[in-house]
């Protein structure tokens, strides 16, 4: 209690100091945005107040400080990605309500076995592979409900309770991080890659081919995934759970007693599969109908709404509104607060200012500049959408490359890849927020592991891109 009070007081003292000192060197709007960002990050990291409460601070502070008006600020909490979350969470609740998530988890265990390393590796690889082809948000929504029953079994039966907790934490983090990392490998895996492709065509008149991108990005993705797995499982949260005989017997017994699917399970599975297929074939569907209205958000909400229409075998519906009390509403507020902060950072010109300052302060050495710009992107994307950040920041990076007579793409590619490596905070990427809602991770744990993994990712991404990017991608 005393720590929380002290942390809150410290955060607001720091906020007041920045409000008064920064306008001497920055514009007033930019200074106020920096002060708000520092306040929110400190409160999030210390958890001195509930995390969703911190996320609502922009609604109070931004209009008061004349950063953005109330309508603009509040609109971030109704952003399409919030409804993508809502739709995904509703699908996950339906899987849980009708027991389908346990069936799916047991099916995966039959392939991976019940060793901790095998389970963690199996879920990690499956998540990363799926994320190469559909959005990382959709991937996390699909995989997490399968993983939670496995985590619960280890928490219940592992003789070493700390080991059981570490297993649950490792499994949650690996799903989030693998969903982010897998999307790096293909041009369609994550929106920032597509943003870069668009800028390459419009600003540089250069085509980035699908095969060329995979040739460069897939090895980076695999290496980052492997190091992430080793760091999480053997360093940050070692899964020494003791004798697993009881847990293994329990899981194997459950796997051997899988009953035929009931009608409700079949119906939920059909909705789930149709939603997943919609995510996979969204682009071809838009091309066929010559429209852009089919989005990941509309697909997720269509699947969620459909669950409230389909009758169940117990004279109700597959989902009732009372089931929505289990929806993690706080996570929706958390991501809304992150989007509000990101919008203010973009509007104030803070992102462009940081990029220009870094470029001016780093010696005109290609490797040093690549490291600095990539690090700026990676740590900025912890507090704002990677798509929005790439949209604003990539033209700056391309301009820096052209101004210094460097290959613009060689500088822009590692920056783009780094935008998928936000490992520190739940609001950094949707998968982080989704697994945080699972309840097995604390903010401080994610931040502690994330900052080290961020630094390792910078080394891998910059190292491979510096050596091979110009040779592979024109």
Describe the protein in words:
The protein has 474 residues and is mainly α. 74% of the residues lie in helices and 0% in strands. The protein is built from 23 helices and no strands. The protein has helices at residues 2-21, 28-46, 51-55, 57-64, 70-75, 80-97, 100-112, 116-131, 136-157, 161-182, 191-203, 210-236, 245-256, 263-280, 282-289, 296-307, 329-347, 350-361, 366-380, 386-403, 408-418, 430-436, 443-472. Helix 19 runs parallel beside helix 21. The longest helix is centred in the last third of the chain and has 30 residues, at 443-472. It is globular, with a radius of gyration of 23 Å. The mean pLDDT is 81.
Binned, the helix content reads over 70%
Question: Approximately how much beta-strand content do the residues carry?
Answer: under 5%
Number of helices: 23
Give start-end ranges of low-pLDDT stretches.
Answer: none
> What's the average pLDDT?
81
Q: Which secondary-structure class do the elements indicate?
A: mainly alpha
Number of strands: 0
* Gyration radius, in Å: 23 Å
Order of helices and strands: HHHHHHHHHHHHHHHHHHHHHHH
Largest sheet: none
């Amino acid at each position: 209690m005393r720590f929380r009070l002290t942390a809150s007081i410290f955060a607001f003292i720091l906020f007041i100091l920045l409000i008064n000192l920064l306008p001497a060197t920055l514009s007033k709007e930019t200074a106020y945005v920096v002060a708000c960002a520092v306040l929110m990050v400190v409160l999030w990291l210390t958890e001195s107040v509930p995390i969703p409460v911190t996320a609502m601070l922009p609604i109070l502070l931004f209009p008061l400080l004349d950063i953005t008006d109330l309508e603009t600020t509040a609109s971030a909490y109704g952003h399409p990605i919030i409804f993508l979350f809502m739709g995904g969470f509703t699908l996950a609740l339906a899987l849980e309500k009708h027991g389908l998530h346990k069936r799916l988890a047991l099916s995966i265990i039959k392939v991976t076995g019940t060793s901790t390393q095998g389970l963690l590796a199996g879920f990690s690889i499956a998540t990363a592979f799926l994320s190469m082809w559909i959005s990382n948000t959709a991937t996390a929504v699909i995989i997490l409900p399968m993983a939670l029953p496995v985590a619960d079994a280890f928490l219940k039966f592992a003789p070493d309770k700390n080991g059981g907790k570490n297993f649950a934490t490792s499994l949650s983090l690996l799903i989030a991080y693998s969903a982010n990392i897998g999307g790096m490998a293909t041009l369609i895996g994550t929106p920032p890659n597509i943003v870069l492709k668009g800028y390459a065509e419009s600003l540089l008149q250069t085509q980035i081919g699908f095969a060329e991108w995979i040739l460069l990005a897939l090895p980076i993705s695999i290496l980052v995934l492997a190091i992430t797995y080793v760091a999480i499982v053997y360093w940050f949260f070692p899964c020494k759970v003791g004798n697993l005989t009881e847990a293994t017997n329990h899981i194997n017994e459950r796997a051997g007693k899988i009953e035929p699917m009931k009608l409700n399970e079949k119906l939920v599975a059909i909705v789930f599969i149709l939603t997943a297929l919609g995510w996979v074939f969204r682009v071809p569907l838009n091309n066929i109908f010559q429209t852009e209205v089919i989005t990941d958000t509309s697909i997720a909400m269509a699947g969620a709404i459909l669950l409230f229409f389909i009758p169940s075998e117990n004279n109700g519906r597959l989902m009732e509104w009372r089931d929505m009390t289990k929806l993690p509403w706080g996570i929706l507020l958390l991501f809304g607060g992150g989007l509000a902060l990101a919008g203010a950072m973009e509007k104030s010109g803070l992102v462009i200012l940081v990029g220009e300052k870094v470029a001016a302060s780093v010696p005109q050495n290609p490797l040093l500049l690549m490291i600095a710009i990539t690090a700026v992107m990676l740590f900025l994307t912890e507090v704002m959408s990677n798509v929005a950040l790439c949209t604003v920041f990539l033209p700056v990076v391309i301009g820096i490359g052209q101004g210094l007579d460097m290959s613009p793409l060689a500088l822009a590619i590692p920056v783009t890849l780094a935008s998928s490596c936000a490992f520190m905070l739940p609001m950094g990427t949707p998968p982080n927020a989704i697994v945080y809602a699972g309840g097995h991770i604390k903010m401080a744990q994610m931040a502690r592991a994330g900052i080290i993994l961020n630094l390792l990712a910078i080394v891998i991404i910059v190292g491979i891109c510096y050596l091979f990017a110009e040779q592979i991608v024109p």
